[in-house]
Specification:
The mean pLDDT is about 80. The chain is mostly helical and about 160 residues long. It has five helices and no strands. It has two domains: about 1-40; about 40-155.
């Protein structure tokens, strides 16, 4: 990194820390944070983690793609394709997290006292199967976008 990149990175971290300090003392944000934390339990923590990872990954992927394709290459088509791939990857992360959460809820339901196969078992199993199918669909979309990228690169379009 050059001197200016270090400088702006340092400024960004300082602004980030100031924003966190502001949010720490901002009463509406504190109320929202407490409300969200009270909603987190063993039943939905996996999805919250997947959501956090998905949002951070989405932002990071798009920022990197913007810097490479728009700033570096001045190629809007490549940015669009990269953005689609990043969105598909984020969808895979979110669907995978929801699938893991569904499996965890199904297991908790099966281990509960008085479990019977009639009491909501089919609904929980259906949620797991639906999330498996949805994750698979997004995996296929991501794969197709990668194949499309390779074919454009082979033809010399540079996507």
């Amino acid at each position: 990194m050059t001197g200016w990149q270090w400088f702006w990175t340092l400024i960004g971290f300082i602004v980030y820390i100031i924003a966190l300090i502001f949010l720490y003392f901002f009463k509406p944000f504190e109320d929202l944070f407490v409300l969200v934390l009270n909603g987190i339990s063993y039943q939905n923590i996996i999805f919250w983690v997947a959501l956090f990872v998905g949002v951070i990954g989405f932002c990071t992927y798009h920022w990197r793609a913007y810097r490479i394709h728009i700033i570096g290459e001045h190629n809007v088509e490549a940015m669009v394709m990269s953005s689609l791939r990043g969105s598909a990857l984020t969808a895979i992360i979110l669907c995978g997290g929801a699938m893991l959460q569904s499996v965890q809820i199904l297991c908790a339901h099966m281990l509960a006292v008085g479990f019977s196969f009639e009491d909501g078992f089919g609904r929980h199993l259906g949620a797991v199967l639906a999330m498996v199918v949805l994750t698979a669909v997004f995996c296929v979309v991501y794969w197709l976008l990668k194949v499309l990228r390779r074919s454009h690169a082979a033809m010399g379009h540079g996507v």
